[in-house]
Amino acid sequence: MNNNIGTTGQKTWFITGASSGFGMAFARFALDRGDNVVATGRSTGKLEALSARAPDRVLAQKMDVTTATDIQPAVEAAICRFGRIDYLFNNAGYGIVGAIEETSDSELRAVFDTNFFGAVAVTKAVLPVMRAQRFGAIVNISSMGGQMSYEGVGAYSASKFALEGMSEALALEVAPFGIKVLIVEPGAFRTEFGSQALRHMPVIPAYQDLLANIRGVMHGMDGAQPGDPAKAAHAIALAIESDATPLRLQLGADSIAAVRGHAEKLLKDLAAWERVGTDTALNA
Question: Which long-range contacts (CB under 8 A, 24 or more apart) does 4-10 make?
């Protein structure tokens, strides 16, 4: 493993949703180690301070991942400015709080448009560049909710499950071109996710008590999350620049514990019902 990640040569990071939260933390980390950053967002106003930090190494680009006509021009601008894209961070996304029945079809489609289809569209636009380079890393920011789901966050988790399923196949498809894929599964980190990046669905009385706890947790976590986004950036860089990059990287003790517990339950159920499951073959 190359732990001295600052000496691996100057890289160009292409980051979606760079105006706040993880995206901003990733951009600052990249700049601090001397790399170039293509910082994209639905508006460039919030990216001005980032640009001022290192004008020669930052390209602030307006790009909404749900607008197809924004994506290719942003990729072309990145190549025109820096000549290559080494790391793609599919970070743009938001959450939904509400029961499945409380979540309208339009809201469900909208969260998929951003969290899943947007990431796919950007990835497809960047892949020809990385294939030509025979080098690159695609970092898809999922969640511990991309491995498991809970009441009240089904729509959000569904979009992240889809992202992870796509990423597993993508990793196999692009490995021959020298391209890595990393799925990142954070727990609670000190970002604006608990305020600006959450949509709360209208409450149906039947679910009011059932989801009272999760609604309260989501309302109350803003500003109290234990995770440090800057340390997350460092951990991700270590992973993608390792000789043994994992497919998935859990960040935060909460994520690690939850994913481990979920995996153990899965294996327990698999063992308990293995005989029933295998006793389904056609008789010879």
Answer: 5/33, 5/234, 5/237, 5/238, 5/241, 6/33, 6/34, 8/241, 10/34, 10/35, 10/36
